[in-house]
Amino acid sequence: MMDSRTRTFHLPVAADLTWGAGLTALLVAAAGAGLQMPPVLYGIAALLYVAIALPIFRCWPPGRDFGWANRATLVRAAMVVLLASLAPFIAGLGNWLWLYGVLCLLALVLDGVDGTIARATHSTTSFGARFDMELDALFILGLCVAVLALEKAGTWVLALGLMRYAFVAASHWLDFMSQPLPDSFRRKTVCVWQVVTLMIAILPVTSVVFATWTLGIALALLCYSFYTDLRWLYQTGRQP
Predict the structure, then answer these.
(1) What is the residue-level pLDDT of the chain in tens, covering all 240 positions?
(2) How far apart are CA 97 and CA 95, in angstroms?
(3) Which residues touch 184 (CB under 8 Å, ≥6 apart)?
(4) For residue 155, what are the CA distances in angstroms to 19, 27, 162, 190?
(5) Residue 102 carries which DSSP code?
(6) Which has the closest alpha carbon to 196: 232, 160, 231?
(7) Amino acid 231: pLDDT
(8) CATH of domain 13-238
(9) 109-141: b or e for each residue (b if 16 or more CB lie within 10 Å)?
(10) Can you list the alpha helix ranges (DSSP code H) found in 150-207?
(11) 186 phi and psi, to 5 degrees?
């Protein structure tokens, strides 16, 4: 007699990371061949994907399914790796720069897909939120490099992408910074402003003056946001 209990098939996380690597390789190979990019493009893409996949492989619980929401994020990861890898060479894209902008917009739209899937399947997790946040950080840093390569702003624009990583690095030495932060509409708004202004800055029709002013405002807002969070963390950490 057959067991009436249904069994759920769990795909090993290594399998998900493998098809994610295949998708990333396909996108990067197509862009590299079509745009005649230098071989270093493939090395950058490989390093970025390993930096994403290795922590997932080491931290994901054995035998637990990766989930469809995380798989959607992995698809976006492949696109973000492609965009970040192309960023240093963006000045040579010519008219293809418009396609780069469209792909950035697509990556931004896909940012909301994984969350929608997680809520629909009741699989919202802190891991998924962190996975999504780290991809946002890499996406922003890649856009900063693209803006710098196009000479739309000076090296100061990299602060928009590096401030998050500096915060994470400092939290390893300052205990009060390692506390979880509450959800913040202010933080989300500043993040969206960063991405939108960076995406506008890379477009061929955007002037250097306009890009500099809007990105300068974005940096000022980001500094204010980080200051507000740091003050909250410090005051909370001092309480008994």
Answers:
(1) 334 443 455 678 899 999 999 999 999 999 999 999 999 999 999 999 999 999 999 988 888 888 899 999 999 999 999 999 999 999 988 889 999 999 999 998 888 888 888 888 887 888 888 898 899 999 999 999 999 999 999 999 999 999 999 998 998 888 888 888 888 899 989 998 999 999 999 999 999 999 999 999 999 999 999 999 999 998 887 665
(2) 5
(3) 229
(4) 36, 29, 11, 20
(5) H
(6) 160
(7) 92
(8) 1.20.120
(9) ebbeebbebbeeeeeeeebbeebbebbbbbbbb
(10) 159-171, 185-201
(11) -60, -45
Residue type at position 158: L
**What is the pLDDT, as a whole number, of residue 65?**
87
The residue with tokens 């698809």 is 75
**Which residue, chain included where needed, has tokens 């992995």?**
74
CA 144/CA 156 separation, integer angstroms: 9
Cβ–Cβ under 8 Å, residues 218 and 196: no
Question: What does the pLDDT read at residue 239?
Answer: 61
Instruction: Report d(CA 151, CA 204) in Å as an integer.
Output: 12
Amino acid at 163: M
- DSSP assigned state of 18: H
Token pair in block for residue 129: 């939120």
Take residue 108 and report the two structure tokens written for it: 């931004």
Query: Which amino acid, residue 83?
Result: L
Residue identified by tokens 């896909």 is 110
At position 27, the amino acid (one-letter code) is L
CA distance 63 to 40: 36
